[in-house]
Amino acid sequence: MIIIVLAVLTALTYISWFYIKSAPTRIVAGLISFGLLAATVLLLTANMNSHYGMKNVTTTTERTIYSAGGSKSPAGMLITQELGTKSGNYVMIFADREDGKAKPHYVPNKKKMVEAVHKTATYKTADVDKATVKTVTTRREWQNHFFKWLLDFGGEGHSLVKQTTTVTVPKNTWVVLSAKQAKQVTAKQKAASQNKAAAAAQQKQMRDAIQAKVTAYIEANPKASANDIANYSKEATAEMTASAMKQLLK
Questions:
Q1: Which DSSP letter does residue 171 get?
Q2: Which residues are 64's β-sheet partners?
Q3: 53 contacts 151 by C-beta, under 8 angstroms
Q4: What is the Cα–Cα distance from 106 to 88, expressed in whole angstroms?
């Protein structure tokens, strides 16, 4: 709309100064139309330079994510691939549902590179019970309908200013791997499984270690319910499995 307003005011300014014969009327009309034209140009310039008439609106979403290794593995797995060198920006593979298939997330959209450069995704490990992804998005919105009606000629509303995504996984029960490390672990697990005697001995050793941890938990918590014990056993299994996977990386 502002383009139309500029065109109308330009025409009025021209008409006022060159077609109105009465000097007093010409001066008054010319100054008013020119003043409005100058104010409109300044408003457009302020919008283009500093986004005048707009405001930043930030929204935060958080949801649970699931292991890239599937639900059968006691330990969770997050596969990462850094974009560039020391960028701190990652493509990450995980599942959106417990029974869902793992897939890559945060792959830059080459068709929208202007927007992609404002997006970052990273990860961290923490003392938490479940894996989550938190996304903080800041978009530029119009302050009110008047500014939108007047200045929205290029679709500036809802434009992305910044989007930061952080994946947080439990430090004891999840393993963070690069794509190369994931292949390395898979290869070592496959090789180990071919030696059935060694694999059976290793599984027995892990079961005994888990049982020892559960026994110690029961002794330390004599009033623990069956559900509490089952949850602890599940957590201990996940911790031991994650620890074994980490050992394969060494």
A1: T
A2: 132
A3: yes
A4: 13
Burial degree of 191 (CB within 10 A; 0-12, 13-18, 19+): exposed
Give dist(CA 141, CA 158) in Å, integer.
Answer: 5
Q: Which residue has the higher pLDDT, 26 or 153?
A: 26
The total number of residues written for the chain in this structure: 250
Cβ(142)–Cβ(148) below 8 Å = yes
Phi then psi for residue 166, to 5 deg, are: -125, 120
d(CA 51, CA 117): 19
Burial class of residue 244, CB neighbours in 10 A (0-12, 13-18, 19+): middle
How many Å apart are CA 63 and CA 131, to the nearest integer? 9
pLDDT digits (tens, 9 = 90+) for 103-115: 999 999 888 888 8
